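Record passed on here:
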Amino acid sequence: GPLHVPCAARPARAPVMAHTLAPYLDAIRSTLQASLCLQSYPSQVVERQSRPEIEFQDSRWHRRSSRASGRGAHCFATVRPLIIARDENERCLIESSINSVRISIKVRQSDDTERMLCRKYARFITQRAEQFVILRRKPVEGFDISFLITNTHLEEMIKDKIIDFIIDFMKDVDKEIKDLKIALNTRLRAAATAYMSQFAK
């Protein structure tokens, strides 16, 4: 049946604006609860294979080829992506399919220093993607970090724990970048003070 999402989530063309962090994270949690109802789904293109539909879009390809050959078209196994936004600089993209969900996060970055730190931080953790299991090595274009959850992950892990991990990650990543920025500014100030002290009388 159709995927039911909460009122807080709207299609990608109409982002939801939440002015505080709690409603933003609550909307993401509710949407993930609805989206992470996954099941095994064999590829419509590669025989005896089950691939993440949100990544490979096998059913979409199969439908185009079926139309070209005059055969019946297979129904889509993906649904319209959703964007939940706190504001224009902080948002979450949730793309759902029958056997996988991809979650992409845009972290708030207010200046060049935060953009540099976010880029370094994202690179650091994506290089260790195998330790996070659900972390995607390359984020979706326009976002900083992406996760890919498949039906096999839900067979091995508890759904609520996965959602808690993503929500906690979103809470922590902003704090980590702010802390790194403060530490960097402190070191720069100390270095500048030490340098200028050479010229003091």
